[in-house]
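Students often ask why inverse folding is considered easier than folding. One informal answer: many sequences map to the same fold, so there is more than one right answer. In these notes we will look at a single instance of the problem. The structure comes first.
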């Protein structure tokens, strides 16, 4: 029996299986150490249960990585044929597979730092702009430690794999009877099958088993990043309503009676139509948490200029982004549709096969000049294709600016973007043409840091705070300049965050990630102090709400509503793998794994 389990085949399999387990175990403790500030007393008390559960997820991954080699080599081993000539292919397989595992384990660290969840297929959202993403990763110092860690790990991994294989090659092959070979095959095969079920007998381990308690960090801790990623590639397990029932409920909620379109309703305002200019500023990662009006404890006075602008505006203190990515903020704010989980709204076949009217298309038909100003390359997020096809006449990106205007790898500094936009607005106003201008800022995007080409000097200490202070200064400077223009009093200004930041891990779906800043300022309709509006409002409501301010008739084919005419009882949003509904006192969360949660909110909600 000793010689039976001393075969080169089995030893090599076991060595690589243990290597996969060890690597994942190392990153478990590294992840725990890096995020030790998130570890509450509950995490300490539940450490052994989370650690034990993590071994099940690691076992699942290690077993699946071993299966291809197990099948390939076992066929030849049972037949008594030498497979030494395939050792280079085996070396290549192990190196590629372990390299990809290392990529997932390392990439999970910065991914979790921002999204507060383990890595998922959401990283594919940017696969349509590979050159931009490579440039951002390789040119931003914040990612250098991760790149160095990967290169060093890959080098050591290659040396270790070669060493293990050579050690087994140097050992003399054992002559084992065919019957014993079959016993080894079945034994090891059954063990791998057990491992592929996560060490469970009756059913395969599932993602929802990680949700041990109400602590969001505790629920993320035991999950292997590799398991999280591969599991996110599988189908959703949500329970959807019957299509006819869902359509009937939507039509009843919206007051739609068009059998061909569940959302369509013709809106006829009662007032006189206005042809005010529209300026929408889409602020990167602008969570409501940075505002001192609601959260003075976080970053006092960090956006005090925006707060002062909001004091004389319709300031929506209960505003929610559709998703947690910039592409969601752009699409939902402009075209009035919510974010689908783990889907890029402007890069899918469905998006390319139809046109969306929304705010830009409707205003364009009303004779508006429509322009989109973005700091990065328009090819990123498929803007260069999607935006011109859906209501915008021009898109102005980084290529329209001189080199000295560049802030970082993301593109143009906010101040240069605002200056160029002001000049374009002046040109449109001089022609007597109403304009709709969208300005997408970038400085507060991850990694948030002030540009090196600005003359503004922030009084804050950290680059993160300086970035928000800088954008706040740019917005304040823009309003000061706009106030000197003749078109200022006939303009509707909209400031909205594309998404927020998960400053606080309060729930499995951190509210600060979708709770965004939103204000609408109309100098020509009364520039007096206004109290905050506390009713729920969503990005998808901007299109009908702005048309309502303009008192223009239009066809609303979106689930969005004019919040001044149709107050919402709740808001809903997506965070990639989960949906959430937030009301006045409760928060409902359902994730793609079939788990559901209901929480009672505090008074702040």
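Output (designed amino acids):
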């Amino acid at each position: 029996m000793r010689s039976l389990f001393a075969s080169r085949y089995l030893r090599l399999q076991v060595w690589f299986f243990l290597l996969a387990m060890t690597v994942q175990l190392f990153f478990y403790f590294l992840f725990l150490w890096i995020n030790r500030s998130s570890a509450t007393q509950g995490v300490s008390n539940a450490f052994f249960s989370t650690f034990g559960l993590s071994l099940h997820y690691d076992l699942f991954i290690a077993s699946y990585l071993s299966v291809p080699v197990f099948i390939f080599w076992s066929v030849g081993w049972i037949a008594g044929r030498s497979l030494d000539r395939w050792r280079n292919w085996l070396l290549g397989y192990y190196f590629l597979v372990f390299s990809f595992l290392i990529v997932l384990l390392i990439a999970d660290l910065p991914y979790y730092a921002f999204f507060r969840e383990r890595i998922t297929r959401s990283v594919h959202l940017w696969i349509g702009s590979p050159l931009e993403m490579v440039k951002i990763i390789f040119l931003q110092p914040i990612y250098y430690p991760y790149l160095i860690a990967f290169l060093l790990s890959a080098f050591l991994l290659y040396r270790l794999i070669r060493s293990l294989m050579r050690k087994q090659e140097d050992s003399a092959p054992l002559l084992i009877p065919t019957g014993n070979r079959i016993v080894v095959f079945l034994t090891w095969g059954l063990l791998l099958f057990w491992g592929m079920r996560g060490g469970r007998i009756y059913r395969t381990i599932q993602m929802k088993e990680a949700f041990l308690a109400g602590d969001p960090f505790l629920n993320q801790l035991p999950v292997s990043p590799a398991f999280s990623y591969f599991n996110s590639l599988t189908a959703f397990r949500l329970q959807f309503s019957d299509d006819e029932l869902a359509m009937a409920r939507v039509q009843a909620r919206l007051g739609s009676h068009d059998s061909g379109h569940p959302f369509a309703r013709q809106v006829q305002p009662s007032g006189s139509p206005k042809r005010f200019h529209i300026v929408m500023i889409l602020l990167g990662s602008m969570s409501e948490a940075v505002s001192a009006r609601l959260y003075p404890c976080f970053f006092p006075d960090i956006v005090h200029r925006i707060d002062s602008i909001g004091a004389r505006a319709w300031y929506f203190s209960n505003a929610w982004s559709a998703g947690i990515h910039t592409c969601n903020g752009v699409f939902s704010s402009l075209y009035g549709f919510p974010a689908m989980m783990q889907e890029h709204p402007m890069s899918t076949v469905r998006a390319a096969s139809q046109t969306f009217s929304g705010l830009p298309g409707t205003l364009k038909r009303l004779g508006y000049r429509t322009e989109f100003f973005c700091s990065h390359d328009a090819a990123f997020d498929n803007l260069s294709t999607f935006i011109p096809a859906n209501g915008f006449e021009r898109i102005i990106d980084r290529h329209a600016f001189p080199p000295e205007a560049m802030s970082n790898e993301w593109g143009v500094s906010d101040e240069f973007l605002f200056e160029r936009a002001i000049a374009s607005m002046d040109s449109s106003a001089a022609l007597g043409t109403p304009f709709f201008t969208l300005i997408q800022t970038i400085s507060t995007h991850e990694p948030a840091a002030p540009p090196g080409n600005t003359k503004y000097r922030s009084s804050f200490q950290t680059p993160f705070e300086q970035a928000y202070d800088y954008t706040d200064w740019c917005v304040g400077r823009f309003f000061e300049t706009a106030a000197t223009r003749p078109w200022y009093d006939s303009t509707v200004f909209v400031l909205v965050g594309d998404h927020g930041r998960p400053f606080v891990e309060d729930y499995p779906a951190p509210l600060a990630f979708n709770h965004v800043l939103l204000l609408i300022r109309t100098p020509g309709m009364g520039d007096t102090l206004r109290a905050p509006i506390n009713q729920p409002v969503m990005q998808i409501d901007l299109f009908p709400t702005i048309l309502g301010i303009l008192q223009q008739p239009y066809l609303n084919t979106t689930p969005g509503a004019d919040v001044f005419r149709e107050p919402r009882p709740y808001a809903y949003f997506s965070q990639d793998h989960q949906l959430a509904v937030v009301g006045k006192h409760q928060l409902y969360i359902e994730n793609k794994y079939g788990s559901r949660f209901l929480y009672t909110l505090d008074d702040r909600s």
